[in-house]
Amino acid sequence: MTNDSRHTIKGNILTPAGWVRGALRYGARIDSIDGSRADPANNDDVYIIPGFIDVHVHGGAGRDMMEGGDAPHVIAALHAKHGTTSLLATTMTAPVEDIDRALGAIGAACKSRGKGEARILGVHLEGPYINAGKLGAQPPFAREAHLDEVMRFNALAPMKLITVAPEIDGHMALVRQLTKAGIRVQIGHTNGDYGVGVAALEHGAAGFTHLFNAMPGLHHRDPGMVGAALAHAEYAEIIPDLLHVHPGAIRTALRCIPKLFCVTDSTAAAGMPDGDYMLGRQVVHKCMGGVRLADGTLAGSTLTMDQALRNLVGMGLSIEEASQRVSTHAADYLGETRRGRLAPGCHADFVVLDRALTIKAVHIEGESL
To answer: Which architecture does CATH list for 52-339?
Structure first.
């Protein structure tokens, strides 16, 4: 690998057309990629792949998005070290004053990316428009959604993605309204059945929040919300920490959902030692790689996207496909045509990995971390 004063980096470069062994020239955006098609198995050069995109980030480095203040910047810096070049700051179900505080800080962070930080593209509003019977690790502040409140939130910080339980009164119509307003809706924290899931997709819902978790599972005579996703979804997010979802279930989803993509659902405990941390208004405990409430309920994760990539490759996926699952599909889902791929004109967001898939360097909009 070389990185000279002309901003050139050499290695095995993963382009939309496949691997190229050659040179990538860049400033804030990629200028050119020159080289010849090559199989990385036939050389020892580094891998250069698109930067990771995470649409479900609650925290990291001991900080939680719901804190407000400088928490979004600290969290974005932690995840940048692990190859995440852009993310959605994700909120918790909470009283409106807590959400307002968090969105005020996130909105400010969206306008200005600090040195060494991942780009915060906007918000994933995971609550409060969920089913009180499927809270998971969300605090008990679930309520019905109203479009005027969503638009007020959107004025504080750009709403890119909202998790909704579509079976709640009025929510099915809201799915259509939000979709028309350009806000993507995910089905999650729901007790809805298969029919509700299919209807929500027909109303414009775009995907599913942490597939398999906090939703009715698949049974052959009652396919549930998971069945609706497996039978009909083009997109869904999944947490590949190998705790939230068994590898066999991940493989099932990979075969069924064309553009399944990975998220971390990371908490303040990401990048930190074992101990107690905050997740919204709740205390969670990190131990043995997991994060749980006092009753043992899984409460987000400590996963980072570089480990997500390694987990997928460890399951047998090629680096090319794993890269799509941690980057390109999420970019497409968000309509980010200049992220999640390495091509001239795209943001110079890329990760350099050694042969063991350990991060050697991260570049965000041309900045070298």
So the answer is: Alpha-Beta Barrel (3.20)
* Angstrom distance (rounded) from CA 171 to CA 144: 7
Listed by start position, the domains of the chain span: 8-48+354-368, 52-339
Q: Distance (Å, rounded) from C-alpha 49 to C-alpha 229?
A: 29
Q: Phi and psi at residue 177, in whole multiples of 5°?
A: -65, -45
Q: Scan for tokens 């057309």, then name that residue.
A: 17
Computed on alpha carbons and rounded to an integer, the radius of gyration of the chain in Å comes to 20
Active site residues: 265
- pTM equals 0.96
Q: pLDDT, tens digit, for every residue of 183-216?
A: 999 999 999 999 999 999 999 999 999 999 999 9
With a CB cutoff of 8 Å and minimum separation 6, the contacts of 304 are 79, 82, 83, 84, 264, 266, 270, 271
Helix axes 147-156, 96-111, angle to 10 degrees: 40
pLDDT, one tens digit per residue, over 72-93 is: 999 999 999 999 999 999 999 9
